[in-house]
Design a protein that fits this description.
Length: 400
Amino acid sequence: MPEIPTAPVLLGGEPGSFPHSVLAERHPAIIRQVREAFPYGPEQHRALDALLESCTEGVIEPLPVDAHDRDRWTAWGLAGYAGRCWFDVPWLWSESYFYRLLLEAVGYFGPGPWQGIDPFRPAKLAELDAQDTDEELAALDALEGVPDAERSAALLHGSLWGNRADLGFRLSAASTDARATAADATQDTPGLVADDSEALWSLLPPSGTGTLCLVADNAGRELVPDLLLVADLLDHGRAAQVVLHVKPYPYYVSDATTADVVDAVRRLTAAPGAAHGYGRRLWSAMADGRLTVRAHPFSCAPLPYAEMPGDLREEFATGTLTVFKGDLNYRRLVGDRLWPPTTSFADVTAYFPGPVAALRTLKSEVVTGLDARTEAALDTAEDRRWRTGGTHALIQVAGA
Ligand SMILES: O=P(O)(O)OC[C@H]1O[C@](O)(CO)[C@@H](O)[C@@H]1O
């Protein structure tokens, strides 16, 4: 029997560590940002005050008794974690539950007039409306007439590096330039620390029969290039069907929901030039069922994908390829553990029920599948910053 590798689960308790800074600094900053984004009433301000106190100095509070998803969270570990310090439980769990309680505080789950109002929507829309987005869309015109393989590769890289568009990440990266280009990687270290793109293309041949499951990450300037890639794969027969997995409710600040997919497709259809054509084709693909959107509750679970429920496992099993976008999905795919970076990506994703790929910029310390030379070069050039700075990326594939 093959040995299943393991490594310590990331916790948030060590002062000075990256997870600790997320819990101690990023979460209070997110509460501030949300408070300033809407003219909330006194009840919501009081609830946000209470959450701030709880998540910085208090303990994990249970959900209200009438919460619609109390049983689900109990099954996801709340029963064992309620009453414990936020910093002492798995980092993935405390981050995830923080977003659940933030939505509770602003009345997102209702009942009441604030039900369904996404507290992160103003930031998401600002990003979609930014001039940078216009420029990125205008650049699509130059791809018209380019050979298929070249255009598809450009769109794959657009989707990959689009993962830097993460509004939560930028709250902590404000002092650095989180939008810096791939050329930021020093001369001795590659922008792409692993590149299995050939294996990825081999799983999506232009035969027109495959189903791609794309597990989306951020809305706005990540989702737009994801959708452009989807349109390209459908247009050129590399996928007959695409299932886009989004979050059932706002999460990790900028994670995409169905409303964000609608905004992104509308943004494309309203654009001039080639972008408009991509938007129209996506619209048609949604209308005739080639592109469907899925919002499974487990997409917002505080658990690794190794613990996914049977229905989701069956769904992924039917896909020709499942692509996980972004840092958080990567953490959940490989388990949120401090792996030695040379741990095999194939070994840690061996539980997955079909071919699987990760497209991700590195924004947390979780990484697998590097070769020893690359790891050593990165450590020498950048100490540990390469793991969290968002300036490096990877394309990894298993089960090809
Ligand atoms: O949007 P992404 O790429 O999933 O990144 C989420 C970010 O949030 C974190 O979980 C920290 O809050 C990091 O792992 C990552 O930087």
